[in-house]
């Protein structure tokens, strides 16, 4: 069995790491292609994962290649599609794997599909079936994941709900395999690495971690105003590893000066092991991200989601993920309850599995390849 694994962003590299590690363990022939959307070299080094065998474009130094410039994204996308198709055809794998909902994900799915001609391999979407059921919440991720599912032959779903959604949409037209989410594998690995490397948490016994970068939030002055008001309700020490795009937009809308008045310790984006270690000791999390909602469940940390909708709907049933809908009053009330000690972590079963998703995916591919 020969596989091609395609990643473009840090999140993809993190969530595909358990698959890559398992492929290595099994001695399976594979090629690791990096599109160059993000610089993933540091996170691969941290997770002790081999570097890509092929890099399509030199990664950017900033946290975003496009800095919200759509024309740059479109031009780059066209180049990637044809370059990636040529390379995958040359490598001629049995399976082409890609993960998630980024621009690189949808490009990988299109490039590897029969839309550009006949193919001998099977396309596999890892973390398939997530839906917010709104093309603009989050944007463009909801569109990207639907494209990826559409052009895939095999859908590896991370939860019972995503499996149900996939079966409703595709029935028997695709192979749908429920594996759990590879983020659970990765967080467990990272916590071991943090202990091994003796990474220490902040000195405060209680603190908050902020993570904000969603396109629909940072491009809207009204939404950012609400987020700044919500941050003003936080009384605990706050850590915010900030994205370049987010800071740029806060400055553009004249809100950076308001944020600077708050008791927030800003930093550049942290390495993944350090960031998970930071989350693991936090009192609660404020975020508009996707993976961080899943990470909060593994770490059993209350997570307030600064969005109107989420595709990680399973988390809302656990009692520790809260969808704020950017309602300032409601969100501040949750913050107050957590900080006053009125909120207790309930018992719940993680809908994203037990941390063996990487093994399940590779086992399935090996068995499928033998048929």
Give a written overview of the molecule.
This protein has 371 residues and is of the alpha/beta class. It has two domains: 2-181 and 353-370, Rossmann fold (3-Layer(aba) Sandwich); 193-339, Rossmann fold (3-Layer(aba) Sandwich), CATH 3.40.50. It has helices at 10-26, 41-46, 70-91, 103-111, 141-150, 160-170, 182-196, 215-218, 221-231, 244-252, 256-260, 272-280, 291-299, 328-339, 357-370; strands spanning 2-7, 29-34, 54-55, 95-99, 122-126, 154-157, 175-178, 208-211, 238-241, 264-267, 284-287, 303-305, 321-323. A seven-stranded parallel beta sheet has the order 3-2-1-4-5-6-7, with helices on both faces. Strands 10-9-8-11-12-13 form a six-stranded parallel beta sheet, with helices on both faces. Helix 5 (141-150) links the parallel strand 5 and strand 6. The termini are close together.
Fourth CATH level, the homologous superfamily of the largest domain: Glycogen Phosphorylase B
Helix-and-strand structural type: alpha/beta
How would you name the oligomeric state of the polypeptide chains in this document? single chain
Radius of gyration: 20 Å
Please tell me what the overall shape is.
Answer: globular
Instruction: Please describe the biggest sheet, giving its number of strands, its sense, and whether it closes into a barrel.
Output: 7 strands, parallel
Mean pLDDT figure: 94
**What CATH architecture of the largest domain do you see?**
3-Layer(aba) Sandwich
| Individual helix count | 15
CATH class of the largest domain: Alpha Beta
End-to-end separation: 11 Å
Q: Order of strands in the sheet with the most strands? A: 3-2-1-4-5-6-7
State the share of residues found in helices, binned by percent. Answer: 40-55%
């Amino acid at each position: 069995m020969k596989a091609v694994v395609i990643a473009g962003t840090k999140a993809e590299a993190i969530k595909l790491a358990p698959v890559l590690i398992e492929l290595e363990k099994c001695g399976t022939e594979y090629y690791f292609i990096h599109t160059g959307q993000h610089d993933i070299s540091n996170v691969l080094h941290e997770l002790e994962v081999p570097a890509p065998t092929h890099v399509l474009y030199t990664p950017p130094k900033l946290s975003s290649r496009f800095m919200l410039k759509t024309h740059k994204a479109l031009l780059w996308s066209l180049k990637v599609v044809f370059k990636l198709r040529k390379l995958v055809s040359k490598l001629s794998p049995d399976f082409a794997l890609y993960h998630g909902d980024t621009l690189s994900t949808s490009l990988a799915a299109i490039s590897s599909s029969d839309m550009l001609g006949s193919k001998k391999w099977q396309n596999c979407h890892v973390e398939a079936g997530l839906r917010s059921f709104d093309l603009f919440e989050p944007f463009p991720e909801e569109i990207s994941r639907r494209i990826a599912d559409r052009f895939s032959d095999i859908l590896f779903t991370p939860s019972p709900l995503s499996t149900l959604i996939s079966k409703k949409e595709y029935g028997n037209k695709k192979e749908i395999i429920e594996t759990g989410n590879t983020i659970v594998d990765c967080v467990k690995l990272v916590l071991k690495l943090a202990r091994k490397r003796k990474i220490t948490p902040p000195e405060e016994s209680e603190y908050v971690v902020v993570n904000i970068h969603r396109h629909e939030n940072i491009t809207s002055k009204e939404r950012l105003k609400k987020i700044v008001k919500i941050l003003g309700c936080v009384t605990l020490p706050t850590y915010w590893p900030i994205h370049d795009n987010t800071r740029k937009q806060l400055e553009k809308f004249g809100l950076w000066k308001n944020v600077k008045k708050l008791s927030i310790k800003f930093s550049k984006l942290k390495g993944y092991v350090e960031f998970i270690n930071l989350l693991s000791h936090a009192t609660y999390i404020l975020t508009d991200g996707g993976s961080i909602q899943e990470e909060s469940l593994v770490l059993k940390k209350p997570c307030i989601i600064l969005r109107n909708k989420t595709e990680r709907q399973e988390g809302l049933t656990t009692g520790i993920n809260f969808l704020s809908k950017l309602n300032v009053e409601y969100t501040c009330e949750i913050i107050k309850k957590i900080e006053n000690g009125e909120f207790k972590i309930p018992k719940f079963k993680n809908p994203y599995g037990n941390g063996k998703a990487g093994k399940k995916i590779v086992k399935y591919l090996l068995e499928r390849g033998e048929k």
